[in-house]
Sequence to fold (390 residues):
Amino acid sequence: VTASQPAGQHTVRRHNRGLVLRTVAADEPVSRARVAARTGLTRGTVSSLVEELLGAGLLAELAAARGATGRPANPLQLNRSGPAGLGVEIGVDTVGACVVDLTGAVRAQWVVASDHRTWPARAGLEAAAELAAEVVGQAGLPIAGVGLAVPGVVAGGVLERAPNLPLWRDVDVHARVAAVLAPVVGDVPVTVGNEADLAALGEHRTHAAGDDFIYVSGGVGVGAGIVLGGRLFHGSGGRAGELGHVVVDPTGPRCTCGGRGCLERAAGMEVLCRAAGVADLDALAAATERGERAADAALRAGGHALGVALAGAVNLLDVPVVVLGGGYPRLGPVLRDAVADELARRVVWRSPVSVRVSAHTASAALVGAATSVVCALMDDVAPDQAAAGC
Ligand SMILES: [Zn+2]
Fold:
């Protein structure tokens, strides 16, 4: 480092800024003195950082308590009307948009049907921009960044391949989303991630599954987000987590990826519905709740296939928790129990692998995408770095 600024000074200040913000977030409303005591920073440092954070609109001051003596010390909290994150999700058959404020609260959200299997990317992105404009108007908050979730393999902002969206191959979604959203949110950072990765990030924020888990997102496709040591595991090019195309039956049916016998062909939502003789996820959830035999048989078979694929992943990665998300949480205990059976049988070490059901609804990836923007603001880092953990 040849700069005249002492190396690391800026980094230390940024680190401390994030520390102050997270301390306020954990304990709000809170006084400056208490922030100093909790962080171990001097009061002077805290005051100066707080001024900066008030100026940036990240913190807000409440009125001082009545009867306070001397100089009033107004308690601090995260600014509910401060910069917010816009999440956009292009699903296989839905499009969604949501705004999350600095506290992580969802302030506006819409998900509507939109079949991208037959629509070209341009039409899908225009639908997303239209929905985003409505949600942003409804939330009425300044948008600091956009997180986009897509159901495919993303590297460097390019959706390289989404087996369920054949018309979206090698689409530079980063550039195109930035272009269609510029009239709505202006020139703000845009990051693009795989939907299961972003849902895993949202799950990590709830602290329910710890710092090491595999999040499985069940939809038309089956994706996974892998969290190791509290960070999202991306692989060498950001493509990790294609659980849906792990082979569970080499002689099985053809898959949209060109292979044969992929997990998706055994545990994807459309396959489960067809096997149960029902039209959609709602009907499948209702059928298993009524204990219908065909539905239970379909879910048991799908759950066993999912368990086989997950046992392989768990044996490779040594993670103690598997979280079932996407549409799977709606399908009751039959599928989950089948997954747990296979894991108990096939994972080679003795301690049991916990199979949890995500408390998130099907919009986990959407909320995770918006949350990744807020994480970047809180940590004052580039959005793509925040997407690694929060
Ligand atoms: Zn496949």
Residues 245, 255, 257, 259, 262, 264 surround zinc ion (CB under 6 Å). The first strand starts at residue 59 and ends at 61. The CA atoms of residues 45 and 262 lie 56 Å apart. The longest helix spans residues 293-317.
